[in-house]
Structures are given as C-alpha cells and as structure tokens.
Amino acid sequence: MLIEYRGHSCFKITQDSFSLITDPYMPGSVPGLKDLDEKANQVICSHQHGDHYGLEEVKLSDVRVDTPFDLTIIDTFHDDKEGALRGKNNISIISYKDTKVVHMGDIGCIPEDDELEKLKGCTVLLIPVGGFYTVEPDVAWELIKRIDPQVIVPMHYRGDSFGYDVIGTVDDFLKLGDLPVERIGSTLDTDTLGKDRKVMVMTPSKA
Q1: Rg of the Cα trace of the chain?
Q2: Nearest Cα to 25, choosing from 173, 163, 165, 201?
C-alpha cells in the first residue's frame, strides 16, 4: 500500500490501480498549503469543515475499478463534549490483506473501549497532533499507547511555512514521546516497513 502525504490531514492511499483520497482541503483553507488538484477512485472525509471537505478538488476517475480496500467507519466526536463544540468526526479504517491504516480525522475525544478495540495493532496510525481543534499532544500519545500501532504518522500540525497559528508543531508532539523518529519524504510504502515501532514524520508535498 502506498501512502502519499499532501498536507494537513490529506493523504492519497493507493493499492494496485485503485486510489483513495482522505480529507482533501478546500482552496485557501489551510494557510501555506498549495491548492489540491487530485484524481482518484474514491474520496472519504472525516467531517464537513472546509479544511477536510474539499470534494471539488478531487476528480473521480471515470474508469470503474473495484476497490481492493475494506473500509470501516467509526462515528466519534470532534471534541470532548460529544460534539457540542465542533460536531461529529469519522475514524476511517482502510485495510488490505494484513495491512491496516487508520485515519483518525479530527478526533477530539477518547473513543469508547469497543471502538478502540477495532483500531488496536494497526499497521499505520494517521493521527492529529497539533491540538486546539483536536486532541492535545499528550492525549494523542495516550491514544497511541492504547491503540499500539506499528507506525505513527503525525498530521494536522503547524510547520514553519504552513498550518494554523493556534495549533502546535510536530516537535511539540514528538518531545512528549519516547519512540524512535524517522523523517521521510512525502511517500510511504507499507511493504518496506520493518517490525520496529516508530514515528514517521512525512513531508507534506503541498507545503
């Protein structure tokens, strides 16, 4: 499975000839990120805020290709007040054979135990780490410990030239953990992952 990081919470996930885009952002909705111009077979969004719901920025392929993915959606909340502040949020589980990628969306709470059970032991966890609009970095680490993924990929944070001023940086998140950190480009091939648990900081291709 090939995972490409566009920026913010937007990823392109490809298996064979089928590609899926998660949480595309609307033009100008994320400071410092270039506009998206994507083509894919499917789009999924965690919620309908502009920085996650840029459906018009993805052109769907007119060639029908059956999805190789098993997709599971878990309904959660964008805040810790059962959605009273920012509404609902979807967690997406994208699976292919023994590989399971979990996109946490703009998770703002600790999911229920039975929901966490479905996420446990995933191959790659895509999790927001900037706080303010989502769980704070320390809560993100609590979720990581409970989910126990093989690889953690931070998203929804502020960089030197992109992101919201009110959210934290990826380094604010990293300093609270004790796992090895590997900084890579904008593409991650899950077939090349070893067995060691680690954080992989991907470079946004639209930054």
Answers
A1: 16
A2: 163
Strands of the sheet with 2-7, listed across from one edge: 42-44, 18-22, 10-15, 2-7, 187-189
Token duo for residue 121: 């032991």
pLDDT digits (tens, 9 = 90+) for 90-122: 999 999 999 999 999 999 999 999 999 999 999
Which residue do the tokens 């990823």 mark?
A: 11
SS3 (DSSP) at 190: helix
Q: Is 13 exposed, middle or buried (0-12, 13-18, 19+ CB in 10 A)?
A: buried
Yes or no: say if 142 and 127 are a contact pair by the CB < 8 Å rule. Answer: no
- Residue 147 belongs to what H/E stretch? helix 137-147
DSSP alpha helix (H) spans, 93-136: 113-119
Domain at 2-201: CATH code:
3.60.15.10
| The pTM of the whole model exceeds 0.70 | yes
At 75, list the tokens.
Answer: 């309904």
Rounded to whole angstroms, how far apart are CA atoms 39 and 24?
11
- How many C-beta atoms lie closer than 10 Å to residue 134's C-beta? 27
Contact 103, 46 (CB under 8 A): yes
